[in-house]
């Protein structure tokens, strides 16, 4: 299982063009000792450290792993016994490597409280379970129809020095508590994004007494399988087509977008394109193989960012006209932009999502091309990983009276707004706000950070005024390779 | 010997408390300075920070709706009215045409950059426009099949070694300066009163006709003035402790808190300075012939510690200053507030020098008071 697989399945977050490539923070190696360090894209001095935990919580004397954390100190700490715990998505993203994005999203709340980021076991610096990734040349060149995910999975599993069955969400939750106690925080405010919302919900289920508030951004309900996002992707794709049809200048520029999109898919599934291109980074001659799946995969990634999303009608139209440069550019975004720890990803998905796929869900997933693709990849690789399935109770909705804010983006290609409604069924003190313009990870694209700051200050979801989410921050579609603004009418 | 000194000290303190008005006048400094400073900073911070929602006037807004919405997301809104007129953004007439051709489209910011209230808002607008430009540039490259990362050959990272406390270093420098300086101001009136004043009231000669040595007399006066100086220091610390946290420092990205442990450190480090202040003021006052003369000399002499502490707090000082009295202590306290270790060596030498000067002045005073010329102001 390689990076390639992650392109199809990873529920990633925080994807923006301006984001820097992740590099590890320079944290201390010693256990239970903190020191100062820096994280990429953040000039502030941070407090870093790690705690030692048993890899298998049931065998406390067995193998040990180190769970690394960083604390982004409050500007003026008014509540030293509280912290805001940011939980990253993926599954498989490193929270510490995303420190700069967490800081941007939570900067208002950081004024008075520390931000705590923990590399969940199996990610980042906490015994990362990584599989060898493909380089961009291969991403462009290889035909995924000929891809042997079983072989890749076996190779990766053999290389990992870990008991992969111990890297699920519930084991990781125990680590979070160890870190909290180690740092002496009495109460936590949770901010979970994407898959991180599952961790946050487990936290609400198992340790409600230490939580003051919870914010779930891009909600994955306990009852849902992250593999069921095929429908969400199809929905988000459809929304692009609809938005373009509703937009006069987009409609005028690409009047037949829908048919063109169908045509490209049709022709690519019959005859994958193979042509010589310039490598997007090195500029050397390279070979591009474009299958329908790769085409859809590149569009899917673009759906995560409102800015890149605005390029899609142009990219589809150009592909229809046999110009694959824009698609090549979108494919290049897959390189490095999602450095998921695939071993950990598998430990979560194969233990918690794959076994819970009911025949009904499978049928639903099979309705979209992306869903079929994911299903196939999981059916091939999960039996090899051999992760024990979680119990039936795992999927029960969370009952809680903790003040909980749920945020969804209308255009989200991974976690549609109705998922948040499912998650809050049994939450008695919860509010769900939908940003009509945001995609995945609402807080990074809206005034969500202000809402979190308000929630953290007041502990009251009713105090939150979600009006600012409605502000029109829509991005116009690209009308050619250079502009989003229509030319004024000739006089 | 000791009991006589104590008796004399009690006499000095009773004298001081009888002349409340003039002596307490010195303490007003300790009470007023932190309050005035905090008030000024509150006003200043409000002026310097950019409002969450920044209204600007955008000309030709309908030419670039995407840009206008992008700015809106950053809290920069197209608006009308007096406030919005202060920063204008003019989008050129051929914006859409230039954009469509893949060229650079011109936008002009019109604002008065010398107006301090606007500077931060102007920078914010510039940054937002730069980011928009960068984002569009990246997407233009993507659309041409090129990875935008090639546009970033350098990845520049800043590892700022400042701590949350040291970021307020400049302001803390001024705060510490006002604290140290309070030991000079607070005891000054008493110093003049107990020396030149006592001589004018002709009670100094009377005092010396008793079986006390000039040494005991000087010591008691020194202690009384020092006590007042320290009282001033305690007052200014106590008031700072409450006043500084009221200022919205986080707007500037740091916080300032005067912790009890820092207050204790200031008191310990400030004691030798208070003694120096007392001896210096007594010495100058006895040198003067009259009360008024003492006042004018002292005002001039006070300029020396002022200059020393000021130059240390603004970091414009040559290195030698950290070994000198007053500036040495000021420097040491600034290191403490920045979360660094106390520079013991420098502090010991400057405090030693402080005490040495105090001793010399005290000895000189003792000798001076043996002369009738000085005692009767002849």
TrEMBL record, chain A:
InterPro entries given in the database record: AB_hydrolase_1, AB_hydrolase_fold, AB_hydrolase_sf, Peptidase_S33
GO molecular function: hydrolase activity
Record Gene3D superfamilies: alpha/beta hydrolase
Ranges where the AB hydrolase-1 domain occurs: 87-442
Ligase found in the keyword field: no
SUPFAM superfamilies linked: alpha/beta-Hydrolases (SSF53474)
Keywords: Hydrolase, Signal
Signal sequence region: 1-27
Family: Belongs to the peptidase S33 family.
Identification of the protein by name: Alpha/beta hydrolase
Species name: Shewanella electrica
């Amino acid at each position: 299982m390689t990076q390639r697989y992650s392109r199809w399945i990873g529920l990633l977050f925080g994807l923006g063009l301006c984001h820097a490539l992740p590099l590890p923070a320079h944290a201390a190696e010693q256990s239970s000792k903190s020191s100062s360090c820096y994280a990429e894209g953040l000039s502030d001095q941070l407090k870093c450290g790690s705690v030692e935990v048993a890899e298998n919580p049931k065998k406390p004397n067995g193998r040990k792993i180190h769970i690394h954390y960083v604390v982004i100190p409050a500007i003026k700490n008014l509540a030293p016994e509280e912290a805001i715990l940011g939980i990253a998505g993926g599954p498989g993203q490193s929270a510490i490597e995303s420190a700069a994005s967490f800081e941007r999203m939570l900067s208002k709340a950081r004024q008075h409280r520390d931000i705590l980021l923990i590399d969940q076991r199996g990610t980042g610096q906490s015994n990362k379970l990584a599989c060898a990734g493909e380089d961009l040349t291969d991403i462009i060149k290889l035909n995924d129809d000929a891809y042997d995910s079983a072989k890749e999975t076996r190779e990766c599993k053999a290389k990992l020095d870990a008991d992969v069955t111990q890297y699920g969400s519930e084991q990781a939750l125990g680590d979070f508590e160890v870190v909290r106690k180690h740092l002496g925080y009495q109460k936590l405010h949770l901010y979970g994004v994407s898959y991180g919302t599952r961790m946050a919900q487990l936290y609400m289920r198992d340790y409600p007494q230490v939580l003051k508030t919870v914010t779930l951004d891009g909600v994955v309900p306990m009852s849902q399988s992250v593999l069921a996002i095929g429908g969400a992707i199809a929905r988000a794709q459809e929304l692009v087509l609809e938005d373009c049809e509703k937009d006069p200048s987009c409609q005028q520029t690409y009047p037949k977008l829908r048919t063109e999109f169908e045509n490209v898919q049709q022709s690519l599934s019959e005859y994958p394109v193979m042509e010589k291109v310039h490598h997007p980074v090195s500029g050397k001659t390279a070979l591009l193989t474009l299958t329908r799946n790769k085409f859809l995969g590149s569009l899917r990634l673009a759906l995560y960012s409102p800015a890149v999303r605005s390029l899609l009608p142009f990219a589809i139209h150009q592909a229809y006209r046999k110009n694959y440069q824009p698609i090549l550019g979108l494919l290049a975004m897959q390189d490095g932009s999602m450095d998921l720890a695939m071993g950990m990803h598998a430990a979560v998905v194969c233990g918690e999502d794959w076994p819970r796929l009911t025949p009904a869900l499978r049928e639903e997933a099979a309705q979209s091309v992306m869903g079929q693709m994911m299903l196939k990849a999981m059916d091939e690789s999960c039996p090899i990983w051999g992760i024990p399935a979680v119990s039936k109770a795992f999927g029960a909705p969370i009952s809680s009276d903790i003040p909980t804010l749920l945020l969804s983006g209308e255009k989200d290609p991974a976690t549609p707004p109705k998922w948040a409604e499912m998650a809050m069924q049994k939450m008695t003190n919860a509010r769900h706000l939908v940003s009509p313009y945001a995609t995945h990870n609402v807080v990074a694209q809206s005034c969500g950070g202000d809402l979190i700051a308000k929630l953290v200050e007041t502990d009251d979801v009713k105090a939150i005024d979600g009006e600012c989410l409605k502000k029109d921050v829509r991005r116009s579609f690209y009308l050619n390779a250079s502009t989003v603004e229509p030319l004024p009418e000739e006089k | 010997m000791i009991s006589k000194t104590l008796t004399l000290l009690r006499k000095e303190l009773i004298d001081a408390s009888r002349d409340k008005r003039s002596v307490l006048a010195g303490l007003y400094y300790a009470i007023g300075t932190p309050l005035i400073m905090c008030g000024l900073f509150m006003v200043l911070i409000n002026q310097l920070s950019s409002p969450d929602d920044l209204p600007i006037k955008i000309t030709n807004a309908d030419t670039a709706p995407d840009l206008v919405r992008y700015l809106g997301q950053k809290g920069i809104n197209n608006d009308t009215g007096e406030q919005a007129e202060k920063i204008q953004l003019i989008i050129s007439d051929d914006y859409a045409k230039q954009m469509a051709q893949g060229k650079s489209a011109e936008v002009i910011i019109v604002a008065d950059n010398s107006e301090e209230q606007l500077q931060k808002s102007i920078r914010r607008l510039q940054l937002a426009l730069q980011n928009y430009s960068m984002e569009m540039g990246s997407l233009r490259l993507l659309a041409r099949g090129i990875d935008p990362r090639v546009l970033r050959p350098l990845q520049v990272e800043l590892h700022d070694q400042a701590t949350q406390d040291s970021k307020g270093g400049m302001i803390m420098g001024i705060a510490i300066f006002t604290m140290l300086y309070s030991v000079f101001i607070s005891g000054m009136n008493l110093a003049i009163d107990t020396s030149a004043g006592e001589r004018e009231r002709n009670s100094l000669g009377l005092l010396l006709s008793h079986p006390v040595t000039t040494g005991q007399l000087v010591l008691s006066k020194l202690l009384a003035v020092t006590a007042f100086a320290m009282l001033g220091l305690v007052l200014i610390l106590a008031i700072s402790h409450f006043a500084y946290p009221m200022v919205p420092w986080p707007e500037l990205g740091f916080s300032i808190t005067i912790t009890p442990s820092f207050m204790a450190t200031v008191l310990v480090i400030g004691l030798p300075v208070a003694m120096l202040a007392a001896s210096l003021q007594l010495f100058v006052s006895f040198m003067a012939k009259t009360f008024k003369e003492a006042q004018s000399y002292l005002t001039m002499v006070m300029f020396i510690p002022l200059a020393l502490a000021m130059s240390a707090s603004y970091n414009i000082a040559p290195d030698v200053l950290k070994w000198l009295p007053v500036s040495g202590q000021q420097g040491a306290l600034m290191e403490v507030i920045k979360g660094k270790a106390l520079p013991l060596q420098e502090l010991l030498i400057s405090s030693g020098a402080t005490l040495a000067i105090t001793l010399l002045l005290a000895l000189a005073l003792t000798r001076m008071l043996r002369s009738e010329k000085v005692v009767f102001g002849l």
